[in-house]
Amino acid sequence: MSMRSIAQPAAGLGFRRELIPALQQGVPDTVQFFEVATENWAGMGGRAGRDFRAFTERFPFVCHGLSLSLGGPGPLDEILLRRTRDFMREHGMTLFTEHLSWCADESHLYELLPIPMTAEAVRYTAERIARAQDILGLRIGVENASTYIAPPGAEMTEPEFVRAVVEQADCLLHLDVNNIYVNSQNFGFDPHAYLEQLPLERTCYVHVAGHYVEDDGLLIDTHGSDVIDPVWQLLQAAYQRIGHSVPTCLERDFNIPDLATLSHEVAHIARLQQVARVRPPAQTPQRQVA
User: Fold this and answer.
1) Considering the chain, what is the average pLDDT of its residues?
2) Which domains does the chain have, with CATH numbers?
3) Per-residue pLDDT tens for 186-204?
4) Measured between alpha carbons, how far is 43 from 122 in angstroms, rounded to an integer?
5) Is 51 in a helix, a strand, or coil?
6) Of 58, 95, 154, 280, which one has the greatest count of Cβ atoms within 10 A?
7) Distance between CA atoms of 59 and 31, rounded to whole angstroms?
8) How far from 265 is each of 31, 120, 203, 236, 272, CA to CA, in Å?
9) Nearest alpha carbon to residue 208 among 263, 269, 277, 271
C-alpha cells in the first residue's frame, strides 16, 4: 500500500469506533488525519475491520502506542513491536509514538507510571527505545506523560530527563501540552517554563486534550472534556517555540460529543497553526553547557 504523508501543518482527530457512522457521512475538511493504536485495531476483522481499511485507504493515519512500556522493568515486547510494524506497513502509516513511561511488569498494569529520573534510567530507557526503532525501521516519538506521583531518587528535572532520553536514543519528541498543564497544576510549577526546557527542536507530533478536575482540585488526564483556554495558550506557545506547526491531534476518548463539536476543536488547532505560520518563532534561551 502506498504511504499517505501528513501535510505540514495538519490538524487531526483520534479515530473512534463511535464516530465511524458520522465519518462515513463525510469527514470534515478540518480533519486532515486520524490517530489509532495498534492495540485497538491490529488484526481487526469483520465490519469494523472493513470500515477501518476504507478510511486508511483515503486518509493519513498516525500510530500511537499504549502499552509498550518503554521504561518498564519487564522485557521489551518485541512481539508487539513487530505486530505494530506490520500493521503500519499494511495501512501505510509512517509515524509511531509512545509514552515515556512504564505500564507493565509480569502483566499489564493499565496505568502509565513515571520513570525514575536518574542517569541509569536514561541509559536503560534510551537503549529500549533504540531497540524499538531498529525493529520498526523508523525513528519514533516519545510522549511526555501525565503523572500523579513523583518517583523517588530524582537526579534531574523532568524536562532534563526527557531531553537526555531523546538525545541518547536519537529519537523524536511527541509533545502533549495537556499533560504538561495537568502536571503543572498537580505539582505546582510553571507550564510555560517547563515547555521551554524540552527538546522542542525534536518535536514530530503534538497532542491536545481536555481533563477532569476532582473535587479536591486534582487534575486527571481523562481526554473526556473540552480543551480549556490555558491548554490552548500552551499549544500556541509551543508552536512559537518550535518555529513551525507540526501535526497535532485532538484526543477525545470519553464523553465523546458529536462530530460537529469535535470538528470545531480541530478547526481551532488549525487556526493556531495558521497563526504560527505568519509569526516569527520565539527565541528559546540557550542552554548552559557545563
Assistant:
1) 91
2) 11-278 (3.20.20.150)
3) 999 999 999 999 999 999 9
4) 33
5) helix
6) 95
7) 10
8) 10, 40, 22, 14, 11
9) 269
